[in-house]
Design brief:
The structure holds two protein chains of two kinds. By secondary structure, chain A is mostly helical. Chain A is built from six helices and two strands. Chain B has helices spanning 2-31, 43-80, 82-116, 209-212, and strands at 123-125, 129-135, 142-145, 158-161, 165-173, 178-182, 189-195, 220-225, 231-237, 247-250, 266-274, 281-288, 297-304. Chain B has one domain. Chain B has a six-stranded antiparallel beta barrel with strand order 2-3-6-5-4-13. By secondary structure, chain B is of the alpha+beta class. The chains are: A mainly alpha, B alpha+beta. The interface between A and B is large, with 46 and 49 residues.
């Protein structure tokens, strides 16, 4: 049986947040941009316990806020949302169907994050497009493409986060 | 089983507490100083500025790496768009014709510059700055420059290419980096005047009297990205003159507000004008002179005649 490593999960999330700050601005086309941190949060925290998942989601979100230049707090809320959804989904998943399930979770998390970002900008009095236009032309494709991206790299991410414990031991503790 | 339940309960409690913390951070961030003034920089903005400073070398590396990709992207877009190809062919022919004329004018210009030396510098420029990287998200259009407060750059200063083509304005400035809000960003706004081509030469950098003269019939309004999503000039009176092909330049006027941009910075050309009797203002779409993809080297105007900032 495989166990999840909290340290590995934290490293994966931190690296994704760094890539989000440095590389993703070049990969933003219109309203679409790869949400690497959210993808990393969902796949990294899915095998973990609820409390660990929430803490790591917040950690990833805060990193995203600190390294980026957007409204502080939106990333943290997005990270929490992604972690919570991943944690709930992990309770119902079946072996072999993790990728497809977590890709759907990514779609939901990205749509939620986009809506959070939109609301935050609106609350802060910053310029936003019309909601209908943004929902159809922005949130929907963003969620679908990110879900697809998550499905493609999800298997690899799950392998990175999971570790094989020594066969003799039956410890439930994770590193 | 009991352990699982307790983990779920503590997870929910942590979720609630951290959500409140996140909302509190958001509130603090919006309320705190946004670094547009030197002594008014809140802790969360300072954290982001520090991160920008630290990430600058990495961003420079990726800017170099992504340059061929961006060029390839433009080429691919061009390959699928036949109208763009035809437009470019036309432009090439025009450019060739203009080339001969340009070399003659260049000689004449050099001679005139000698004559006018010391009389034309209405703007004081900072050092030539490299565009390090784009930043921001899907709602914003911003770039980072490799100049900062140590180079004399401050927030809210106009950024130009060439001598006077407006690119945007500086927002958050650290020691060695400056963030620039491009004119196409949804939050950008500037007072502009719409000048007929005969009255203004964008290449010369000369401040035409048509830009600063009062009581003229030229259209004046607010340059911004409209709620409908187009880049244009709002609040232009129906009676004011504004035609397709006219130049859009900063007016340097903002009612009784402090001047944020000097007059005479070239923004772009009027692409379309429409007006309906039931509306109060004209609808003016502008084709910006700068292309965010092409930005490599820019300059920050750090001071200009009449600036009291």
């Amino acid at each position: 049986m495989e166990q999840a490593s909290v340290i590995r999960a934290a490293i994966v999330i931190a690296l994704a947040a760094l890539l989000d700050a440095v590389v993703v601005p070049y990969l933003t086309f219109g309203f679409f941009s790869p949400r690497l941190t959210l993808i990393a949060v969902v796949f990294a925290v899915a095998p973990l316990r609820d409390l660990q998942a929430v803490l790591l989601g917040f950690f990833g979100g805060i990193l995203l806020d600190a390294l980026g230049s957007d409204l502080f707090g939106v990333g943290a809320l997005g990270g929490l949302l992604a972690a919570m959804l991943a944690s709930r989904a992990s309770a119902v998943r079946r072996r072999g169907s993790e990728r497809i399930l977590l890709a759907q979770v990514i779609g939901l998390a990205v749509a939620g994050y986009d809506l959070l970002g939109y609301s935050a900008r609106w609350l802060a009095g910053l310029g936003v497009p019309q909601l209908g236009e943004y929902a159809v032309g922005g949130m929907l494709p963003d969620a679908v493409i990110n879900a697809l991206l998550a499905f493609l790299i999800g298997g690899w991410l799950l392998n990175v986060v999971n570790i094989n414990p020594p066969t003799a031991g039956k410890s439930n503790y994770s590193i | 089983m009991g352990r699982k339940k307790s983990s779920a309960a503590s997870g929910l409690a942590a979720l609630f507490i951290l959500s409140v913390v996140s909302v509190a951070l958001f509130t603090v961030y919006v309320k705190e100083g946004d670094c547009t003034q030197e002594q008014d920089c809140g802790p969360l903005h300072t954290v982001q500025l520090g991160a920008a400073e630290v990430l600058q070398p990495a961003r420079s590396v990726f800017a170099t790496l992504f340059e061929p990709l961006q060029r390839a992207n433009e080429s691919v877009q061009g390959a699928f768009d036949n109208s763009e190809e035809k437009r470019l062919e036309r432009k090439l022919q025009e450019s060739q014709a203009l080339g001969a004329q340009a070399s003659r004018l260049e000689r004449e210009n050099a001679r005139l510059r000698e004559l006018l030396k010391g009389q034309r510098s209405t703007y004081e420029y900072g050092p030539l700055a490299q565009v390090v990287a784009p930043v921001g998200d899907q709602f914003t259009q911003r770039i980072v420059l490799n100049v900062g407060t140590e180079d004399g750059v401050e927030p809210n200063r106009p950024v130009v290419i060439g001598e006077n083509t407006l690119v945007g304005r500086t927002t958050e400035v650290s020691k060695h980096t400056a963030q620039v809000m491009l004119i196409t960003d949804r939050m950008f706004a500037a007072g502009v005047r719409i000048i007929p081509p005969a009255e203004f030469d964008p290449a010369s950098g000369e401040l035409s009297p048509a830009v600063t003269a009062e009581n003229v019939s030229y259209g004046q309004g607010l340059l911004e990205t409209n709620v409908e999503g187009y880049f244009g000039v709002d609040l232009v009176s129906l009676k004011a003159r504004a035609e397709e092909g006219d130049f859009v330049v900063t007016s340097g006027r903002a009612g009784d507000k402090e001047l944020l941009f000097p007059p005479g910075l070239y923004v772009g050309k009027v692409e379309a004008v429409s007006s309906q009797d039931i509306e109060q203002f004209k609808k003016i779409v502008v084709d910006p002179a700068m292309n965010p993809q092409d930005l490599e080297e820019v300059r920050v105007i750090v001071d200009w005649a009449g600036w009291e900032g």
